[in-house]
Amino acid sequence: MTDTLTTPAAPPYEADSPLAELFDIAQAVGVPTDDEQRDNAETAAAHHVWNQYADTFGRALNDDNWVGRPALKPNGLEPSAIIPLGGGLWLHHTLDISERDGARDVLTLLAPCNCGRGYLGYELDGEDDLLQILTDLRRTSGRVTHDGDSGGAYCDSLHPPQPTTR
Question: What is the C-alpha to C-alpha distance for residues 120 and 112, in angstroms, rounded to an integer?
Fold first, then answer.
């Protein structure tokens, strides 16, 4: 026989208890709407970029061009924001929420692969890291060389390049 969970007739706490007040606060505040999550993600991205990448992204990006995305909780994704950089490159910002470390900003540069079917993400670790990646990408006009067979960069595309026939 399977036991079913039933709601007790009276709550197991006093009406004037801190828990009752907390439940009331949670109900009044509620969960942020998708629009609020988008706005918050755009603000967080602009703030992080301005504070940590002032000499690069801070000079090159317009804060108004960030596009926020709400959380996708079933997939475990927090709210995020993206901004196009041109040439098929994108910048993605989100917060990594871990139980151990709390929240940390994660900024990822997404560069298209020369196979035309995928992207390679570079999780950035400050302006020096960004400058090195940009120097490397400039040599290939902003494209990552699809080199999965030799252990190099690989876009992890779902559709491998098809052989061409002449």
Answer: 6
